[in-house]
Design a protein that fits this description.
Helix content of chain A: under 10%
Largest sheet of chain B: 7 strands, mixed
Order of helices and strands of chain A: EEEEEEEEEEE
Radius of gyration of chain A: 13 Å
Helix content of chain B: under 10%
Shape of chain A: globular
Structural class of chain A: mainly beta
Largest sheet of chain A: 6 strands, mixed
Number of strands of chain A: 11
Order of helices and strands of chain B: EEEEEEEEEEE
Number of helices of chain A: 0
Number of helices of chain B: 0
Largest interface: A-B, 24 and 23 residues
Oligomer: heterodimer
Number of strands of chain B: 11
Distance between the termini of chain B: 37 Å
Distance between the termini of chain A: 37 Å
């Protein structure tokens, strides 16, 4: 079993839809959870990070972490064509176990 | 603020040849990372530098890959000799610090796309 599982998609939605992106993980030591967005031919850019369980909101983006289920989500409200990209989840144990472990990424297309 | 710079952007070489990639991190960022991203996969950390010292190179194939960070600023990643399975995007990232929450605010460059034929 891989440490981080992420459905690669592709996921295609109409403009304005609510998008749900998810990752599951197996390592209970993970404490920091991140979402990166990667446009084609570009490097990833950090969207949000959360520590431990709970929700975090930033504009149209909401990150959720459920450590009991080892499940994290990213919701995008009122999706826009400019949101079309690959979304990567990443996580780390923190402290001496700082290394980021990435999911494979989900390719999202928002159609106008 | 200028971002992370990488060159070249694209490189095509034959197997068994050597290749080098260059990275210039964001000014003031003490920590520099090299990642390998194979098509359809997430980035995998190859090596992490804190200033000009190596913090972690546990996933670097040391028989063929080497990296250095000159004077704690620029960095070069070399592959010699290249294999077909080295075809990937090599991403450089930097962060202000190598510990604490600042570790996770990593800023990535555009990457170098390597094709080994």
């Amino acid at each position: 079993q891989k440490e981080v599982e992420q459905d690669p998609g592709p996921l295609s939605v109409p403009e304005g839809a609510i998008v749900s992106l998810n990752c599951t993980y197996s390592n209970s030591a993970f404490q920091y959870f991140m979402w990166y967005r990667q446009y084609s031919r570009k490097g990833p850019e950090l969207l949000m990070y959360t520590y431990s369980s709970g929700n975090k909101e930033d504009g149209r983006f909401t990150a959720q972490v459920d450590k009991s289920s080892k499940y994290i989500s990213l919701f995008i409200r009122d999706s826009q064509p400019s949101d079309s990209a690959t979304y990567l989840c990443a996580m780390s144990g923190g402290g001496s176990n700082y290394k980021l472990t990435f999911g494979k990424g989900t390719l999202l297309t928002v159609n106008p | 603020e200028a971002g992370v710079a990488q060159s070249p952007r694209y490189k095509i070489i034959e197997k068994r040849q050597s290749v080098a990639f260059w990275c210039n991190p964001i000014s003031g960022h003490a920590t520099l990372y090299w990642y390998q991203q194979i098509l359809g996969q997430g980035p995998k950390l190859l090596i992490q530098f804190q200033n000009n010292g190596v913090v972690d190179d546990s996933q670097l194939p040391k028989d063929r890959f080497s990296a250095e960070r000159l004077k704690g600023v620029d960095s070069t990643l070399k592959i010699q000799p290249a294999k077909l399975e080295d075809s990937a995007v090599y991403l450089c990232a930097s962060s202000l610090a190598g510990s604490g929450v600042l570790l996770y605010e990593q800023y990535f460059g555009p990457g170098t796309r390597l094709t080994v034929t």
